[in-house]
Amino acid sequence: MIRVGILGASGLAGGELIRLVLQHPELELTFLGGSSSAGRRPAELHPGLRLDLGLTIETLPDSLADRCDVVFLATPAPVSAELAAELADQVPCVIDLSGAFRIRTPDLHDRWYPKVRRAEGLADRFVYGVPELIGDQLAGAALISLPGCFATAITIGLAPLVLSLGLNLRTVVVDGKTGSSGGGLELRTANLHPLRNGAIAPYSPAGHRHGAEVKDFLDRSKPGGVESLSMSAYGVSHVRGLMASSYVFTDDEVDARSLQRAYLRFYKEHPFVRVRRHNETLIPVPDPQAVLGSNYCDVTALHDEEGGRIVVLAALDNMVKGAAGQALQALNIRFGLPVETGLTMQPVMPA
């Protein structure tokens, strides 16, 4: 059994990690960490977890190496940066769910994460963990930084255009909509039910750090493949789920058939990306409600000939494929397990 520790176990992502680790046949949960919640049982903090795990939330001990083979950091980015520096050479594998190490370029990181100070050289040791795109680099990796929830959907949506078709994307405009769980448990007036319910709230209308993260990754994967990428983000009244709509402008020739074939070919061996025709079901897909509770990302690429653009739609559950599920997917690859191990749950619909 692979021994697992979770730091930040009292948060939403921490609770989702606990849920998924418990149903994974090769994992044993051996440590739950937190500061303000130290001494409390997981079931007190996560009402859905009624099992007696024999664990309480603890503060960080002197050494985790004797108790854990892998540690998940489900902590805010500034905290993850400090913990990663402490744990990097202590435990065999650290998987960070925060944004502390997602953006490799120092100036870009400082712009979007001005309060996150990283130890010298530590960011270069992290593998940016999009399992479908860099799975070979995850095998045996000691430090893994998971992409953000929006960044996962956007990257999965754009990768076939850049890395398979080899298109030069002159302009990409992303419209992102996400449920309230994307903001975590921090109390904000704008997230109170009387204000959030039924709302479409433009909380980042003129730029979002997940867009910068995608651009940084694609620039390193194929320099010049994306000239300009900008993003607007909106909060909607769902709890789980997000939709990333990418409007792509290119001077290269493309048609609807070549788009569909390229996506099917690119993700043929990747079970958690479902390439869809948007009119193939009772409701138009991708739609977040068609993936809730699962580790799937549904994606569609459409050719808008009249508008001279490609429309890429990607939907996922931000708590699973956008966070805890993708973390376990990366763990499976890291430890040589079949990628689907512990993640075969189908979506729950309606939700």
Notable characteristics:
seven-stranded mixed β-sheet; six-stranded parallel β-sheet; 351 residues; alpha/beta
Q: How much helical structure, as a percent, in the residues?
A: 25-40%
Low-confidence stretches: none
Spatial strand arrangement across the major sheet: 8-9-7-10-13-12-11
Q: What string gives the helices and strands in order? A: EHEHEHEHEHEHEHEHEEHEEEH
Major beta sheet, specifics?
7 strands, mixed
The number of strands is 13
Please give the count of helices: 10
β-strand percent reads 15-25%
Give the overall average pLDDT.
93
Provide the gyration radius in Å.
20 Å
Structural class: alpha/beta
Choose one word for the global shape.
globular
The N- to C-terminal Cα distance equals 33 Å
What does this structure look like?
This protein is an alpha/beta fold. 28% of the residues lie in helices and 22% in strands. The chain contains ten helices and 13 strands. It has helices spanning 12-22, 42-45, 77-87, 106-112, 131-138, 149-164, 193-196, 209-221, 256-266, 320-334, and strands at residues 2-7, 27-33, 70-73, 93-96, 127-128, 143-145, 169-178, 200-204, 229-236, 242-250, 273-275, 297-304, 309-316.
Secondary structure topology:
Layout (H helix, E strand, L loop, with lengths): L1 E6 L4 H11 L4 E7 L8 H4 L24 E4 L3 H11 L5 E4 L9 H7 L14 E2 L2 H8 L4 E3 L3 H16 L4 E10 L14 H4 L3 E5 L4 H13 L7 E8 L5 E9 L5 H11 L6 E3 L21 E8 L4 E8 L3 H15 L17
Parallel strand pairs: 1-2, 1-3, 3-4, 4-6, 5-6, 7-9, 11-12
Antiparallel strand pairs: 7-10, 8-9, 10-13, 12-13
